[in-house]
Amino acid sequence: MPDTSTQSETSYFRSLYSEEVRRLSELQPARVLRLIAWQWLLIAVAVAVPVAVVRAMTGETDLLAAISGLSFAGQCVVVALHAVAMVVIAGRQHALPVIMHDAVHYRLFHNRQLAEIVSNWFCAFPVGMVTSLYRRSHLAHHFFTNRPADPDWAILAKDEDFAFPKARGAFYKLLLKDLAGANLRSWWKTIRAWLGYPYLFRRAGGGLLSRSERIQFGIFWLAVLGVVTWLRAWPWFVMLWVLPNYTLTLAFMRVRAIAEHDLHRSETELDRTRHVDGTFIERNTVAPLNINYHIVHHLWPSIPLYNLPKMHAIVMQNARFRARALAWRSYFGKAGSLFSTLLI
Fold this sequence. Notes:
Layout: H1 9-16, H2 18-24, H3 29-58, H4 63-68, H5 72-104, H6 112-124, H7 131-143, H8 151-156, H9 168-179, H10 184-191, H11 211-230, H12 234-245, H13 248-260, H14 269-272, E1 274-276, H15 280-283, H16 294-299, H17 308-315, H18 319-324, E2 326-328, H19 339-342
Parallel strand pairs: 1-2
Helix pairs in contact: 3-5, 5-6, 5-7, 5-12, 5-13, 9-13
């Protein structure tokens, strides 16, 4: 057993479970492809259902024309369907970058070039991101978590929106502003480093994007916008893709970002990083695809997302780890929830 007198607590756990980590770090490319396919299947269903219902009710495929011709009751049905579809889609818009996040750590496929292409075209580009741009800041976040060289901490620690504890009313007002799109300006300083749009027309991506990446990003969005125009589906596209991406998805991201790290602590991964089990709804909105297993991810970033629950189960059998881990049963709720401790 490792000599804990000469090792930090983080090093102790990393050494103790090195064999389990080696085994759970093995890549399963077929599983990744199934995960990506499942996200897009859910998105397709979430889009198809309101489109089919509106057409059945009105005979129209034009959303605006259909709504104007419906009774008040019919309009309420359409609004309700769209609300449900937007939640499902926003959850998947949150999930796709989680898969991209594994590509950032080179955890998709053994062939890194293939992994980058798949990550970009099926996970990052659809939500406006580029894998390499996210990698630039995210790997630094792992090396310097909650310290001045951590790009995430440098932004969030100075942002009053991420200062906790916080009054319950102020927090829910903040989430409502996210849902209304009123926080886009404040979000921009965080997400602009990950998005391809600002660098698309800069020579060599302003030094951040390669020529190939800029071309791929441009081709992707020209194709998307061309298909939307050809199908005359702009109202549907705005309602079911653009709007969720910059409202609901950002609200989900905010909850997750707040939960993942205690910005006031920087000693070890067990002091600054949190785990939340999450309810079924929370795991499909604010914490998709095991991103909530954040302590084990920071301790062992070589473990792909589909094996994080296994590693968490292993280390939680260790009494010393259980006593130190910052872990909660859910994000929201009265008992055993993270936000019950963060809101006053």
